[in-house]
Amino acid sequence: MYEKYRKEIFMKNNFIYLSYFLDQMTPTYGNKEKIKLAKKSSIECGDVANHTIMTTSVHNGTHLDMPLHFFSSGQSIEDFCCSDFIFNQVLFIEIDSSDLIINDNLIQKMSEVENKIKFEAIIVKTGLCYKRDQEVYWKKNFGFHPNIADYIRQFFPNVGLFGFDSISVSSFSNRELGRVAHKSFLNPKKPILLLEDMKLNNLSEKTNIKKLIVAPLRIKNSDGLPCTVIAEVE
């Protein structure tokens, strides 16, 4: 009954989550710094209330990388307002890559897009989201070449967000290039925020994203921000 009600609500509103639950099974970059959940108190053990302590990196699960991640004077959440996290013009691209470092194949797809100036966010689906429960997700993840950030700034001047279904913009197989990619996207002079580890299973190129809402935890002076991400689709 409840499941039927949920489906009816979805059909009416067309809102979906593009972020994952956080739990102790959440994959992490390099399989390090895993999430830990510990019960400080439990009703089942006779305590008055349940109380859970969570220990995690701010770069676990669906999250934003902020410029402060790679620049000591880079921006964090305090430097952005609510409207910076609501996107009404979203370019969604699906890509099938044989290379772990995505570069020219994505640039070619972006070059074919008309009216580039209207877009505020770019979301890329690699298909890796279907393997999130496998070792390959963190060990052989797709990364994005620094050239992509340069291309976006030149031809998509209003884009402030680049999201994708890989665990990081940095492939674990080429971390050195990944550091350069982080710096290229997050350059404080004109940052393109990175939205990593997105849940894109239910999207295809036939999907029209009418609105994208990114709701980060408001952690001051933080280089990363776990997020809830919601899309209105049709």
UniProtKB/TrEMBL annotation:
Source organism, top-level taxon: Bacteria
GO MF, any single term: arylformamidase activity
One protein family per Pfam: Cyclase
SUPFAM superfamilies: Putative cyclase (SSF102198)
Gene Ontology biological process terms from the UniProt entry: L-tryptophan catabolic process to kynurenine
Annotated Gene3D superfamilies: Putative cyclase
Protein name: Cyclase
Species in which this protein is naturally found: Campylobacter jejuni
